Amino acid sequence: MSSSLARLIQQLSAGFSNQAQAFDNPPLYAHILVKFRPLPQLAPGSLLLEQSYAITPGTPYRIRVLRAEQRDGALIIHNQALRDEQRFWGAIEDDERRQSIGAADLLPLEGCTYLVREMGEGFSGEVEPGCRCLVERKGSLAYLVSSFEIDPRGMRTIDRGHDPATHEQLWGSLAGPFEFERTHDYNGDIPPSWLEN
Amino acid sequence: MSSSLARLIQQLSAGFSNQAQAFDNPPLYAHILVKFRPLPQLAPGSLLLEQSYAITPGTPYRIRVLRAEQRDGALIIHNQALRDEQRFWGAIEDDERRQSIGAADLLPLEGCTYLVREMGEGFSGEVEPGCRCLVERKGSLAYLVSSFEIDPRGMRTIDRGHDPATHEQLWGSLAGPFEFERTHDYNGDIPPSWLEN
């Protein structure tokens, strides 16, 4: 693997919290936890993602398997859902259940791949163009406009939903991105083979 | 007191939570708790207000003493801060500390009075016009545009900060109002004299 890809995987393999932001800006930001943890049994670059409200860490509102890779010289992150995802709630901190995730459990999310570029000491990424990453919220369909920045200090994310017909913003915050600090380091879970050139 | 004012005080004297909204719309809404509880030792219509993140109920991010009254036929709610407010954190559930709040602890918030009108079975209110209800967030001054609706089922609130010079919205959600369900009833704390015509 290239050193850029290795560095991206290393920076992602961590736990994050926006506690400081939430407490500095009540009540505008929910306090949320985001964790990315390597899945060595799957293709290189595969990371389990769990996002939850801090108040209910055992019932994540989003669980995915991401896969970072370099293709034609560019960094991308594939986005995959999990079949019957409730089976894997909490797997981020449960070695046995995390190791039980197999390739057959993954459902590729078309149109939801992140395009990533290096930026300073870190990376920035956004969902590929095309308005094809559709998400449903309360029965209404929106396409996701999502971006992130990550570096050795932390991570910033912003998610917005737009109307597929009018492109009007349907949901998401005007208050700006979620701002996360690092709380956990999962670099010890990365198989050495993933980091070789 | 008029029956409208009595009804407003009765509908306000309660605890509220937006748990359902937060869990239905992750991660857009912080899960917050709002409680209004009568302060019989103060002027009629005085209610202690505490707002907190559900995850940290003991350290409210906002504590106020409101006072509902009828003036010239109109319903209004005065808005008052508390001197050294940390003394009263948690007083909403602590009878002794709640009863220790005296008139000398109150600081009127000029320009932040709510104008209230009856609406169906409930009431709606908004901060008086004039752009004078100034709040500071991270060193920047904004004027508050705040409104609420309350009825026997629940409460909806929306707060936004605007630039005093340009009137541009500085913070607040595009996602819409906080939507609260009732969790506590503090009508038993209302002195009967407050409800007489």
TrEMBL record, chains A, B:
InterPro entries on file: CpcT/CpeT (IPR010404), CpcT/CpeT_sf (IPR038672)
EC nos: 4.-.-.-
GO MF annotation list: lyase activity
Keywords recorded for this protein, A-Z: Lyase
Keyword Ubl conjugation appears in the UniProt entry: no
Top-tier EC class: lyase
Function: Covalently attaches a chromophore to Cys residue(s) of phycobiliproteins.
Similarity section: Belongs to the CpcT/CpeT biliprotein lyase family.
Name of the featured protein: Chromophore lyase CpcT/CpeT
